[in-house]
Design goal:
The chain is of the alpha/beta class. It has a single domain (5-189, 204-236), classed as NAD(P)-binding Rossmann-like Domain (Rossmann fold, 3-Layer(aba) Sandwich). It contains eight helices and seven strands. It has helices at 14-25, 38-47, 61-74, 98-122, 147-166, 188-194, 206-218, 242-248; strands at 5-8, 29-34, 51-55, 78-83, 130-134, 171-177, 226-229. The chain has a seven-stranded parallel β-sheet with strand order 3-2-1-4-5-6-7, with helices on both faces. Helix 3 (61-74) packs parallel to helix 4 (98-122), helix 4 runs parallel beside helix 5 and helix 6 (188-194) crosses helix 8 (242-248). The protein starts with a strand and ends with a helix.
Length: 252
C-alpha cells in the first residue's frame, strides 16, 4: 500500500518524536530529520511501521534546501512538512546575546521558511500539500525571557498567512504549544509544577500536540489558521517564563 509521506524536522526526540509516532500510527511514511541525534532517529524509525531518517544541520540553509530537493525527487506522494526543530537558548529582553540571536533566528525562522518554500516548489503529492509551522503560546502571552527564541517564533508565525496567500491550493498552518516538556536544568517535579500554570491547571502532553499536527494534516481546517495546544496558557498574562514563575513560587 502506498503511504503519504511527512517530513518532521527535529523528530528524533521530544515533541518531534511524538509527532512522528502519531503520523506513523496513522499510516504515513515518516521522514525523521535529525541534527546530532542519529542513534535516536534510527531507533525511532525502526519502531515505526514505515520510516526513514535524514540528517541535516538546519543552521546551514543551503544544505536544508538541498535536503528538500533530494527528498522530492524520490517521494511520489509527499503531502506534509512539519517544521518542529527549534533552538531554545537563554537570553532576555534586557540582555540580547547577538550570537544566540543569529543562531536562533536561522534555525527557528529563516530555515523553516526556506524549507516551506522549497517543499511547496518541489514536492509531489496526490492531494493538497500541508505545511505546519510550530510556533509558541508566547506569541500571545509574551514575557521578557528567552528573547531571541520568542522573536524567532514571531518571525516563523508571520510566514504562515503570507505562504497561505501565495499557495491557495495548499494548506499552511501554525501550531502553538504551551509548556510541554522539561527545559534546560528543570527537574521533573519542577517541570510538572511549572507546566500546570495555565487556565486548566493541567499538564499538556506532547501527544496532544502530535494529534493536533495530525488533525491539521488530515482534517478540514482552513489554510492560514493558528491552533493553540496549551490548556489555555496563551489566555493568561504571565510576566515571566513559567520555569521562573515556578521557581519564584508564583501563581499565573
Amino acid at each position: 500500500m502506498s503511504r503519504p509521506a511527512v517530513l518532521v524536522t527535529g523528530a528524533a526526540r521530544r515533541i518531534g518524536a511524538a509527532i512522528a509516532h502519531a503520523f506513523g500510527g496513522a499510516g504515513w511514511h515518516v521522514l525523521i530529520h535529525y541534527r546530532h541525534s542519529r542513534g535516536a532517529a534510527e531507533a525511532l524509525a525502526a519502531a515505526l511501521p514505515s520510516a526513514e531518517t535524514v540528517g541535516c544541520d538546519l543552521e546551514d540553509g543551503e544544505a536544508a534546501v538541498h535536503m528538500i530537493q533530494a527528498l522530492a525527487t524520490r517521494r511520489d506522494d509527499w503531502r506534509c512538512l512539519v517544521n518542529n526543530a527549534a533552538l531554545f537558548r537563554r537570553d532576555d529582553a534586557a540582555r540580547l546575546d547577538p550570537a544566540v540571536m543569529a543562531e536562533t533566528m536561522q534555525v527557528n525562522s529563516i530555515t523553516p521558511a526556506r524549507l516551506a518554500q522549497s517543499f511547496l516548489a518541489h514536492a509531489r503529492s496526490t492531494r493538497d500539500r500541508c505545511v505546519i509551522q510550530l510556533t509558541d503560546q508566547k506569541l500571545v502571552n509574551p514575557n521578557p525571557d528567552f528573547f531571541s527564541y520568542t522573536m524567532s517564533k514571531h518571525a516563523a508565525a508571520s510566514s504562515v498567512p503570507m505562504l497561505a496567500m501565495a499557495y491557495p491550493n495548499d494548506r499552511i498552518y501554525a501550531l502553538a504549544p504551551g509548556a510541554i516538556l522539561a527545559s534546560h536544568d528543570q527537574h521533573e517535579a519542577e517541570a510538572d509544577r511549572s507546566h500546570r500554570l495555565n487556565l486548566l491547571a493541567r499538564r499538556t502532553s506532547a501527544e496532544e500536540v502530535a494529534q493536533a499536527a495530525l488533525f491539521m494534516a488530515e482534517g478540514p481546517l482552513a489554510s492560514g489558521q493558528v491552533l493553540h495546544v496549551d490548556s489555555g496558557q496563551h489566555l493568561l498574562a504571565q510576566k515571566r517564563d513559567v520555569m521562573y514563575l515556578a521557581r519564584e513560587g508564583e501563581a499565573p
